[in-house]
Specification:
Layout (H helix, E strand, L loop, with lengths): L1 H31 L3 H4 L12 H47 L3 H15 L4 H10 L6 H24 L4 H9 L4 H12 L1 H16 L3 H6 L8 H11 L4 H36 L1
């Protein structure tokens, strides 16, 4: 009876996965392969004439190759933001976990508030304007780092809690300073949770639409998600090109998630168990 219930639950999960993920992806792929006339009906059907290559070429050439500029901007934004988040969040979590004091509870509360309090867009724009960082890539990178810090610090804290303090004491006796202790002893042990943070935050920042729209306006600063907005405005009836653009910007995070899915699960499980 238990095996039958488990089999039914597994079958339901597979069907649900197919409905939620595979069917929409198949619809995107088919629509991106249609001509403009076929795609205008927005129907789940085979193309009467395959135009995948023509649509791909048209999307890349649109607006003076804006999509290539957007891919470069999104890559810079994602790589720099995630790299800084990993190092800063790991260091902050190590200090908060190892140095217990009367200030620790207050700092943990401040970090936890970062998950609860919604971001204030207008004050953030005002700060960026006053510091000369509005409409600049460094300004948007700082915003993405700030948004990600709270979640990542909590993940690292849960994992570091499971690392024995005896390792710290042994490294200190051997003459390791604070930075050497962290980067040469503790940081290599964080590899499972680092992979989790890198993949989750890369997908989040790559797919972020609101932050570039608010803090990095302008065609020359477009990210991949903003090209969807531009395509929808310029090609209102060209759903074939719009869905081709959606397909192109979806592929990179999809590949990353598929390659590192096991490391994500193992990192999350290790953090939850050790925490």
């Amino acid at each position: 009876m238990t095996q039958r219930r488990s089999w039914l639950l597994s079958s339901f999960s597979i069907i649900l996965f197919g409905v939620v993920f595979l069917i929409p992806f198949a619809f995107i792929l088919l629509t991106a392969s249609k001509t403009q006339q076929d795609a205008a009906f927005l129907q789940f059907s085979w193309p009467t004439q395959w135009a995948f290559v023509q649509n791909l070429q048209a999307v890349f050439e649109a607006r003076d190759y804006l999509l290539i500029v957007a891919f470069i901007n999104s890559t810079i934004l994602t790589v720099v933001s995630v790299a800084v988040v990993v190092v800063l969040a790991a260091m902050a979590a190590f200090v908060l976990e190892r140095r217990r004091s009367r200030w620790t509870s207050g700092l943990n509360l401040v970090i936890l508030s970062g998950l609860v309090i919604p971001p204030a867009v207008v004050p953030t724009i005002w700060v960026l304007q006053k510091t000369g960082l509005f409409k600049t890539m460094p300004g948007l990178i700082l915003v993405e780092i700030a948004y990600a810090m709270a979640f990542c610090v909590l993940l690292f804290q849960a994992f570091i809690a499971g690392i024995p303090r005896e390792l710290d004491e042994a490294a200190t006796i051997d003459g390791a300073g604070p930075l050497s202790l962290f980067f040469r002893v503790v940081f290599p042990l964080l590899r499972p949770i680092i992979v989790t943070v890198v993949v989750v935050q890369s997908v989040f920042i790559w797919n972020d639409f609101a932050s570039p729209l608010y803090f990095l306006p302008g065609d020359e600063n477009a990210t991949v998600q903003l090209t969807l907005f531009n395509f929808q405005g310029q090609y209102t009836n060209s759903y074939n090109l719009l869905f081709m653009d959606i397909l192109l910007v979806t592929i990179p995070p999809l590949i990353m998630f598929a390659v590192f899915q096991r490391q994500i699960v193992s990192g999350m499980v290790a953090g939850s168990v050790k925490g």
